[in-house]
Design brief:
The longest helix is centred in the last third of the chain and has 24 residues. Helix content is 38%, strand content 20%. The chain has 287 residues and is α/β, with parallel strands linked by helices. The chain is globular, with a radius of gyration of 18 Å. InterPro entries: Glyco_trans_2-like (IPR001173), Nucleotide-diphossugar_trans (IPR029044). This is Glycosyltransferase 2-like domain-containing protein.
Length: 287
């Protein structure tokens, strides 16, 4: 891999058990030149002690308050030294050494903007990890809680017919595993700190697209993503508020003003539906 160094950046919040699995898998399957940087967002579990006692070679940044996903990742970037950056969720787990294939692919195709990989659920079925850019239509369906009732309405947005066996250019990848060259990351403006959580990776993909840096899905690398472990600790209404805030930031930044206003007008109805959902304890993911 031409002596490139890779910085693996992990933002963690109260998922010590999953982070332990993630780090163990990295040390087991990564044979290239790399460093690991963990940013702890004010966890109340044993995350900090785990890193200090079991993984002393990991660079640890401890935040006194939760800085959110984007800002914490940028903290990691500021402390990193790699030529390439790998943003990895703490609840991911390598199952083999195929991450090296993705790294080799990106180093051999440096015109690419960013690379995502095949994300698997805990049972190793394909996880939806490729999407179209958000549209007014797709977000109306989401706000009105129609995804669970009529799954076909957002079939195009969620790329339900996507061929996960084929490496190809895509619009957007999820933030669980993102590989990007440092110079590209700096050139397009880094993750936007205005996003606390959600939409920050979509915003990044959008800006890469605007600057003619293609985003690719790489089929030959597979990792497990146990999925939303941090957010299971947050009440449904609070999760919805975080999602809505980021959605509005994205639409104000990238979409016509009238689309932004339509979404704002629908927020009271969305919160009513979310409250009903919370009362009924409906845990299906709707966004």
């Amino acid at each position: 891999m031409n002596n490139y160094k890779f910085s693996i950046i992990i933002v963690s919040w109260n998922v010590a058990t999953y982070l332990d699995q993630c780090l163990a898998s990295l040390f087991k399957y990564c044979y290239f030149d790399y460093e690991i940087i963990v940013i702890d967002n004010n966890s109340s579990d044993q995350t900090v002690a785990l890193i200090k006692e079991k993984y002393p070679t990991v660079k640890l940044i401890v935040n006194e308050v939760n800085q959110g996903f984007a800002q914490a990742n940028n903290q990691g970037v500021d402390q990193s030294t790699g030529d390439f950056l790998l943003f990895l969720n703490p609840d991911t787990e390598l199952i083999d050494n195929s991450l090296e294939k993705a790294i080799t692919y990106l180093t051999n195709h440096q015109h690419l903007g960013m690379l995502g990989v095949n994300i698997l659920n805990s049972d190793q079925t394909n996880q939806i990890s490729v999407r179209k850019f958000p549209s007014l239509y797709s977000q109306l369906i989401t706000l009105l809680k129609l995804n669970n009732i009529f799954p076909s309405l957002n079939q195009e947005y969620f790329q339900k017919d996507f061929d996960y066996h084929k490496t190809q250019q895509v619009e957007s990848i999820i933030g669980a595993c993102m590989l990007i060259k440092r110079t590209v990351y700096q050139a397009i403006g880094r993750l936007d700190n205005d996003y606390f959580i959600w939409f920050e990776e979509v915003d990044l993909c959008r800006r890469l697209n605007q600057k003619n840096f293609p985003v690719y899905y790489f089929a030959e690398t597979k990792i497990i993503h146990h999925g939303k472990q941090s957010f299971k600790q947050i009440m449904t209404l609070s999760r919805q508020a975080l999602f809505n805030r980021s959605m509005l930031i994205y639409f104000k930044k990238h979409q016509p003003w009238w689309q932004f206003m339509i979404l704002v007008i629908l927020l009271p109805l969305n919160y009513l539906l979310t409250f009903i959902q919370q009362i009924l304890n409906i845990q299906k993911r709707d966004y």
